[in-house]
Each structure stands twice: as structure tokens, then as C-alpha cells.
């Protein structure tokens, strides 16, 4: 690893640490909740964590742009750009559920070069480097080798939205896999990267929800696309997503979601 990569990896961990410390300061404490136009909640925790992260990135990556979910975009014409979701899973955070996350991706001309999934309440940080490796708290991780959906551990994220918008797909999904769970947010995808879960079907994601996850999952050996098998980019929006440990699993899930 060269000096530039060492610098990037060091600060990927650094930004995760800053976000985790800030998030834990708010977690399970009284919060003021507002609702955006799309009815998604936002709190002073979301804004406070993002402010801390932006300050850190401004100090260590002054030439990079930044796109944060809560405070918008600065320097969107720059070659390098950070995309940040300060609290992925605000509803989980609000309800005291420890499975909320922090997401950050450093993009080079629209391609995520490094991704960070932080789980502040769990003390876990996953980092993935494009064309490199993925780690959990510094230890290398990789996806499972499962190729059969019939024997897979399958997580269905945003199941209520999938049921409402694509009832036929939902019916097929709940009859798929050897073990299946309903879930939300980024942690199921992190579990794919760790090799504990074989696949996740997700729905209605924004770029700040999936770009960091994409970098980590791919570095761990997995595959992540939209429901048509297309590459996820920073220009995509409201995306349905398939995240799978192997190409074989990915293809089987693509066949299911195509019935919609």
C-alpha cells in the first residue's frame, strides 16, 4: 500500500471514529424530531454528526467536495467527493435500536474508491477499498461462497415498501432462501460483507444509502446492483438494490425481481 492509500485508509477509520463518538453522545437521549417532505425523520443527531464529519474531512481533505444527506453539497465539481449519511437508520436510532449506521464513501469521478460502514453502538467499522480488500476492525473479511438461493440466508430490507409496490416479488422473496429475515438500513449489507448473510434485497435507496456499502461489499468479494442488474452510480436515485455474496445468488434474485 502506497503513502496515499495509507493516508486514505487512516482517515477512513478516523472519520468513522469521529462519527461514532458523536452518534453515541445522542443515542438513547431525548431528541427533537422533524420530518422532511418525504416523511423521513431527521434529528439534531443527524445534523450534529454530519457537522463533525464535515469538519474532519475539511481539515484532512481540503480539496475534496462533500455531499452530505443533511447539509447538502459543497464542491460538487471536484474530482474527489465524499458522500456521507451521518445516521443511516434514523428510525432505528430514534427507537433505541443499536442497528443504525454511519456511511461514507470517497468518490473519484463518480466511482466509490473507498467505503466506510460504521456501527457506532456495536463498536464495528467496516472499510472497503476498490480493487483491494475489506476489513472489519482491521481484520480482513470476505463474503460467503453460497451459490444456491434455496440454501441461502436472505434478508429482505424495506419489506413493507416492497409488498406495497411489488406484491408478486414480495410473495416470491418470502418463499425464498433457507433462512430469511426482515430488516432495514445498512447492517444486513455489512453482514453480507462479513460472510454471515448471503444476500439482501433492498428498496428505495438514495446514493448516500448505498455508495459506501457498494465499496465495502465489492471489496469483500460480493456484487451489488439495482434490480435490473445495472451498476449503481452517484446519479441513481430511489433505487431497488440486490446485494449478494456470489454472482450465482445475484442471478437467481434478479430472476425473482424481474417478475414485477
Automatic annotation (TrEMBL):
Pfam families: Inositol_P
Cofactor(s) it depends on: Mg(2+)
Record: residues binding Mg(2+): 69, 85, 87-88, 209
Keyword terms, alphabetized: Hydrolase, Magnesium, Metal-binding
Entry keyword annotation includes Protease: no
GO biological processes: L-histidine biosynthetic process
SUPFAM superfamilies linked to this entry: Carbohydrate phosphatase (SSF56655)
GO molecular function: metal ion binding; phosphatase activity
Family, similarity comment: Belongs to the inositol monophosphatase superfamily.
UniProt protein name: Inositol monophosphatase
Amino acid at each position: 500500500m502506497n503513502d496515499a492509500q495509507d493516508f486514505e485508509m487512516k482517515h477512513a477509520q478516523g472519520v468513522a471514529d469521529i462519527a461514532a463518538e458523536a452518534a453515541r453522545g445522542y443515542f438513547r437521549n431525548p431528541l427533537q424530531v422533524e420530518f422532511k417532505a418525504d416523511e423521513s425523520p431527521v434529528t439534531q443527531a443527524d445534523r450534529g454528526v454530519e457537522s463533525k464529519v464535515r469538519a474532519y474531512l475539511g481539515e484532512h481533505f481540503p480539496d475534496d467536495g462533500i455531499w452530505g444527506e443533511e447539509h447538502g453539497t459543497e464542491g460538487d465539481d471536484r474530482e474527489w467527493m465524499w458522500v456521507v449519511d451521518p445516521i443511516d437508520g434514523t428510525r432505528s436510532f430514534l427507537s433505541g435500536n443499536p442497528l443504525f449506521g454511519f456511511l461514507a464513501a470517497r468518490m473519484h469521478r463518480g466511482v466509490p474508491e473507498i467505503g466506510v460502514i460504521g456501527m457506532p453502538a456495536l463498536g464495528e467499522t467496516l472499510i472497503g477499498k476498490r480493487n483491494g480488500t475489506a476489513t472489519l476492525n482491521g481484520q480482513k473479511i470476505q463474503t460467503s461462497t453460497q451459490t444456491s438461493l434455496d440454501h441461502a440466508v436472505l434478508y429482505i430490507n424495506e419489506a413493507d415498501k416492497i409488498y406495497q409496490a411489488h406484491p408478486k416479488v414480495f410473495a416470491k422473496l418470502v418463499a425464498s432462501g433457507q433462512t430469511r429475515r426482515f430488516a432495514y438500513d445498512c447492517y444486513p449489507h455489512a453482514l453480507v460483507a462479513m460472510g454471515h448473510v448471503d444476500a439482501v434485497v433492498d428498496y428505495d435507496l438514495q446514493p448516500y444509502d448505498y455508495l459506501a456499502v457498494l465499496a465495502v461489499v465489492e471489496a469483500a468479494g460480493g456484487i451489488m446492483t439495482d434490480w435490473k442488474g445495472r451498476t449503481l452510480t452517484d446519479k441513481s436515485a430511489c433505487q431497488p438494490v440486490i446485494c449478494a455474496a456470489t454472482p450465482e445468488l445475484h442471478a437467481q434474485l434478479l430472476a425473482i425481481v424481474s417478475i414485477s
